[in-house]
Amino acid sequence: MTTTEELILNTSGDFINSSDGIHDVVFNRLNSWHTNGGRRRYYDAEEFKKANFNEAPLIFANTHPINIGKLPLEEALKEVDGRLIGTPQDVLVTNTNSALVGKISVTDDDVNELLKKGLCHISTAFVATPDEHGRYFNIVPNHILVYPIATGIDPGDQSALILNQSDEGQSDTMTEQKNDQLDLMRELVQNQTAKDELQAKVTEQSETIFNQKSQIDDLNKTVAQKDTLLSQKEEVITNQANAIESLNGKVSELTQKISDIKIAEKNARRERIFNQYSAGTKTKFLPRKEELFDDEKYEELIFEMNQDQSGIVKPPSEPSGTQEVAANQSSDKLEYINGVVIKYD
Asked: Which of 178, 15, 181, 179 is nearest to 111 (CA)?
């Protein structure tokens, strides 16, 4: 969630080429991080381009209060014994996007004298909304404050400098600090082009990385889709394999049932054959009846039973045995059984 913040920035301005009441100013460093109220905030040049600082009130006060931006202008001026001293002009973002620059037109002679001697700071105040990363957007200027260095409040932005001013009224320490700051600003300006070129390369590389990441994401999605299809096909194959296994089980079960039925029919037929022999033969071979149902012993058993009953050398075949034995038992005449003439007494 974002919140709106109202800022009173202790940011020193740079007064360049002062002439009468017109002063060139560098208001803020842009595309860089600042610490406001103990929080890191990013000043995005593109967002500052949308803000109109030309209409912000230009105020002078002998103090730098923390709540001037939270009060109506007239009340704020009374609280700090302040006054309007002119207007900002031509405030814009540099071509390099490194700073917010412009002019202030000061109509107050006393303030002009302080400015020419390098005895003032400038602070910009605006209302803005930080995003979750600390980047400001929706910037609305509130005022621009000019206040004496004598307040002892150091600039929050050490790179915002006062340039091209007289050393009159400044201590040796202040003069040395100003010279150091001048060198720093010149170095900053000299390196800005290189920085911009590097930034362009970084942007290009970032776009390349983003495009590659997008391609990787697309490939990952394609792989995920293929994995899903493979998983679905694997599930279908598994289901089919289970169905085949189940069907094989049913086939085996049915095959076993058919085999059991055939065995039962065969055993019933052999039972009938056994029962058609004479009572004496059946009684004699009853202890060996189980051999009827043993394929390896069946023919030998029938052969012996035939020999016992009628001297038959060859046992009747299963299909014809029933009829032949029945005919043999019911006739007292010559009968043909398996090609052998039998005479019953």
From this structure: 15
3-state secondary structure of 316: coil
SS3 135: strand
Supply φ then ψ for residue 99, to 5 degrees.
-155, 155
**Which tokens in the block code for residue 205?**
């590389």
CA 183 to chain centre: 48
What residues pair up with 23 in beta bridges, in sequence order? 104
| Stated pTM of the model | 0.48
Q: Which of 97-101, 192-196, 236-240, 271-275 has the lowest mean pLDDT?
A: 192-196
Helix and strand totals (H; E) in the chain:
7, 12
DSSP code of 38?
T
Question: Kind of pairing, strands 22-29 and 32-36?
Answer: unpaired
* Strand intervals (E) in the chain: 5-6, 14-19, 22-29, 32-36, 39-43, 58-60, 83-93, 99-106, 120-130, 136-148, 335-337, 340-342
Distances in Å between the Cα of 245 and the Cα atoms of 65, 66, 234, 239, 251 are: 87, 84, 16, 10, 10
Say if CB 112 and CB 106 are below 8 A apart. yes
Closest CA to 80 of 57, 102, 100: 57
What is the C-alpha R_g of the chain? 57
Exposed, middle or buried: residue 259 (CB in 10 Å: 0-12, 13-18, 19+)? Answer: exposed
Supply the pLDDT for residue 317. 57
**Separation between Cα atoms, residue 257 and residue 265, nearest integer Å:** 12
Please state the separation of Cα 107 from the chain's center in Å.
59
Q: Any idea which residue has 């009853």 for tokens?
A: 286
Let me know if 136 is exposed, middle or buried by CB neighbors in 10 A (0-12, 13-18, 19+): buried
